[in-house]
């Protein structure tokens, strides 16, 4: 079995609450008491200093120290020494390019998949935890060398999944249609549409849907299915 431990959150802020407010109890039970400091990766946003301040304030209020990787003169060494990693949201293309530019893809994979340190992602940070960023909602504002991501799980996620608004007159594609277009390509993996307020907890070879909202699962060539919090998604961890 894999020692991996992941908390993959759809969004950082839920309507009516503060930064990571809706998942702070999940974070505390996930990180536990062994972890003292978290390595934060703010690459998805342009103003990394401000982003790190926001994250530091939150994590310190939960009892954890926070080091931001952008303040380190050696990002690779920072990952090697980290007790836990949290990658925040923003633009997924910008984030993935920075991970490649700083030679962090293999380093993070090793720390999480071999050494078993906890990995938490929200939004773009959840996207890069999967096979690829093909199912992000973001604009390709920069050009990473590849769309292949960390591959901590063998499927893709669509964070902030939105159901079609039946009252809307907007004629553009729904999120479901876009994911279906992705699955028109050969050999495309499952896509888990995580609604705002949902998160996936992965512990070794077990994956469980948590949070207050459900998720929609898309498998190539099949009708999408609806899932409530508490759903066991462990079958998605079997590399198809």
TrEMBL record:
Catalytic reaction list: Dipeptidase E catalyzes the hydrolysis of dipeptides Asp-|-Xaa. It does not act on peptides with N-terminal Glu, Asn or Gln, nor does it cleave isoaspartyl peptides
Pfam families: Peptidase_S51
Compartments where located: Cytoplasm
UniProt-listed GO biological process terms: proteolysis
Leading EC class: hydrolase
EC number(s) reported in the record: 3.4.13.21
UniProt superkingdom: Eukaryota
Keywords assigned: Cytoplasm, Dipeptidase, Hydrolase, Protease, Serine protease
Example GO molecular function: serine-type peptidase activity
Gene Ontology annotations for the cellular component aspect, listed alphabetically: cytoplasm
CDD domains: GAT1_Peptidase_E
Main location: cytoplasm
Stored PANTHER family: ALPHA-ASPARTYL DIPEPTIDASE (PTHR20842:SF0), PROTEASE S51 ALPHA-ASPARTYL DIPEPTIDASE (PTHR20842)
Family stated for the protein in its record: Belongs to the peptidase S51 family.
Function: Hydrolyzes dipeptides containing N-terminal aspartate residues.
NCBIfam families: PRK05282.1
Protein name stated in the entry: dipeptidase E
């Amino acid at each position: 079995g894999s020692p991996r431990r992941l908390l993959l959150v759809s969004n950082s802020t839920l309507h009516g609450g503060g930064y990571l407010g809706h998942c702070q109890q999940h974070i505390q039970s996930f990180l536990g008491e062994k972890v003292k400091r978290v390595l934060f990766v703010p690459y998805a946003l342009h103003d990394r200093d401000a982003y790190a301040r926001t994250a530091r304030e939150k994590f310190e209020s939960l009892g954890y120290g926070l080091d931001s990787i952008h303040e380190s003169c050696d990002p690779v060494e920072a990952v090697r020494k980290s007790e836990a990693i949290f990658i925040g949201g923003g633009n997924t293309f910008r984030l993935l390019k920075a991970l490649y530019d700083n030679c962090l893809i293999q380093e993070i994979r090793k720390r999480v998949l071999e050494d078993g340190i906890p990995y938490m992602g929200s939004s773009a940070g959840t996207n890069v935890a999967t096979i690829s960023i093909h199912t992000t909602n973001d604009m390709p504002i920069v050009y990473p060398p590849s769309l292949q991501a960390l591959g901590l799980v063998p499927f893709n996620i669509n964070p902030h999944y939105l159901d079609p608004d039946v009252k809307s007159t907007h004629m553009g594609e729904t999120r479901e249609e876009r994911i279906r277009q992705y699955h028109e390509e050969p050999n495309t993996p499952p896509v888990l549409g995580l609604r705002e307020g949902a998160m996936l907890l992965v512990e070794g070879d077990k994956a469980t849907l948590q949070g207050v909202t459900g998720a929609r699962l898309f498998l190539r060539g099949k009708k999408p299915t609806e899932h409530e919090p508490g759903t066991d998604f462990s079958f998605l961890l079997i590399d198809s």
